[in-house]
Design goal:
The protein has about 190 residues and is mainly α.
Length: about 190
């Protein structure tokens, strides 16, 4: 039984990042006390290791126990919903976090853009993107990959001029392999 929440959560996170969800779950189940960070680490771990149903199961258990998620837990839930192509479930989870959190936090906003893009709702992805206060490379990659994945490759070239407000160094580090793959696809 793990008594120190900080140490146990660090172990859960480490095992999850190393892809060993069985050990992560063992530590998690052995914890006497679990906080939102611990639960978020498990949910993120499940989602990122291709186990979206397990992520959603843990999240729904949290909801039954009236544990309020933080924005990073919701990022894990959105990632799971993206893998499941579960737009309605993702939108329900989105409602649990303040709208400003999505617009001010690039990590959270990117997760929502990914959900909408993977579910084919590029109009909603674009609305989130437009409303975001901070747009880093990851946010740009998410929206452009989304357009490319949904067959809107030419939109990249309309977005290209808007990069003028970026300094040259940041734009030179822009990478979007999906764009190039979809651009070359004959279908």
């Amino acid at each position: 039984m793990m008594r120190n929440v900080f140490v146990a959560t660090s172990l859960v996170d480490m095992y999850a990042k190393c892809g060993n969800m069985e050990k992560a779950r063992g530590v998690f189940d052995g914890m006497l006390e679990k906080d939102i960070v611990t639960r978020g680490a498990m949910i993120q771990g499940y989602a990122l290791n291709g186990l979206p149903r397990e992520a959603m199961g843990l999240f729904l258990q949290m909801q039954r126990e009236n544990v309020k998620p933080d924005c990073y837990t919701v990022v894990g839930v959105l990632a799971a919903c993206t893998r499941l192509v579960a737009l309605e479930l993702g939108e329900w989870a989105r409602e649990l976090v303040d709208r400003d959190e999505f617009l001010c936090n690039p990590v959270v906003g990117t997760a929502l853009i990914d959900l909408y893009a993977n579910c084919g709702s590029m109009a909603r992805a674009w609305e989130v993107f437009k409303g975001m206060k901070e747009k880093d490379r990851v946010v740009w990659n998410a929206i452009i990959s989304g357009f490319a994945m949904n067959g809107y490759v030419n939109i990249f070239w309309t977005l290209w001029p808007s990069r003028e407000n970026w300094d040259q160094t940041r734009w030179e580090h822009f990478h979007c392999p999906a764009l190039w793959l979809y651009s070359c696809w004959p279908g």
